[in-house]
Amino acid sequence: MSASPVLETPSDHALAAAYRAGDERAAAELVRRHAPAVGRFLYSSGAVRDEIDDLVQEALFRAFRRLDGWRGEASFRSWLFAIASNVLRDQYRRRKGRQVLLIEDRDLPDRADPHADLAAMETEERLRQGIASLPRLQREVFLLRTQQGGGYVEIAAALGTTPGAARVHYHHAVKRLKELIR
Amino acid sequence: MNDCERLSDRMPDVALHRSEWTPEEAAHLAGCAECLAEWELVLAVRALGEGEGEGAPTVSDSSAVSATLLRRLAEDRAGRARARRAWSFAGAAAAAAAILVAVMTGRDAATVAAPPVVAEAEALVPLPELEGLETAQLDTLLQSIDRPFAGTSTLDASTLGEHEDGELEQVFAAWEG
Question: In this predicted model, what pLDDT tens digit does every residue of A28-42 receive, in sequence order?
Fold first, then answer.
């Protein structure tokens, strides 16, 4: 009995190349793979929840428009995160410095311990605010490292800095956020 | 690198379930308040990134996002193609205008650089006193003009200095008609 063929999942590189060759399904697959993570990255960075879809859309548009700019030193996702971070910064500038991060009213979940849920939400919100208040490179290095597990070499390539500088940014971010959530 | 720094470097990988704490690392973590605080922070941020938080939103519909994205990219490509065509047209128009200017300027220059034509045109201006003459009379006049002065004079020009004033007056009157 012969083994069933193993369907290989195409890499991000292969999908990007396919899209450049005109295969729109490849773009749809890249979006399916990475758009949710970009949304969470933006949310973690302080984006308002109602604007996540638009920000993700804009980040993906910019990324696909200059897909040739992705040379593979960093992962596709890290590269996307760096672009998403630029989109968020541009939105902040358009608002002329008005704070992007808002404390949002949410319906309390119907659970056994609403007080615990509320405390968790407050902690989460405080954490988001803390991350949003970090200097840009600190924030990006910190999120790429903690949410994507990126190494300093890859992160440095995605953000246009050096691995040593990325490490320093990460530790500064950790120090500031630890003080914030204590 | 001390134990705290080593643990700090490993935290993202362990939080993302790519690795696990060794017993020594776990023991250090349990006894080090700084490392424990950092570990809790890393776990909380990872949860935020994985959408585990209470209110963490993410993209509502990936297929809708990709459909919109592909439409925007197609529009963008079409817009850029239109812009390229417009620039090509503008370039061609500018080139045509430049050629036209060069041709016009060259024509003017050619006109300025052709004085013999002007002189010829001036030479064609009619003399009213000649209009009444017959062809034969005009031929005679032309022959008298073409004839050398020396030939028309009864005197040799080289011997003019030997004549009296009255004689010279007669010669000049003969020349001038």
Answer: 999 999 999 999 899
Q: For A98-118, what is the mean pLDDT? A: 50
Q: Please provide residue A62's backbone torsions phi and psi, each rounded to the nearest 5 degrees.
A: -60, -40
Contact A154, A74 (CB under 8 A): yes
Phi/psi-derived region of residue A22, left when phi > 0, alpha when psi is between -120 and 50, beta in every other case: left
pLDDT, one tens digit per residue, over B70-94 is 999 999 988 888 888 888 878 888 8
Do A60 and A27 touch, CB atoms closer than 8 A?
no
DSSP annotation of A4? P
Average pLDDT taken over every residue of chain B: 77
Q: Does any CB of chain B come closer than 8 Å to the CB of residue A24? A: yes
Output the pTM of the full model.
0.62
Q: How far apart are CA A34 and CA A77, in angstroms?
A: 7
What is the end-to-end Cα distance of chain A in Å, rounded?
A: 61
Q: How far apart are the first and last CA of chain B?
A: 126
* Helix pair angle (A136-148, A24-44), 10° resolution: 110
User: Minimal Cα distance from A55: which residue of B?
Assistant: B59
In A, which residues are within 8 Å of B76 by CB distance?
61, 65
A132 touches chain B (CB under 8 A): no
Res A109: pLDDT: 44
Q: How far apart are alpha carbons B40 and A180 in whole angstroms?
A: 12
Task: Answer whether A109 touches B (CB < 8 Å).
Answer: yes
Tell me the Ramachandran region of residue B127: left when phi exceeds 0, alpha when psi lies from -120 to 50, beta otherwise. Answer: beta
Query: Cα(A162)–Cα(B104) distance, rounded to whole angstroms?
Result: 61
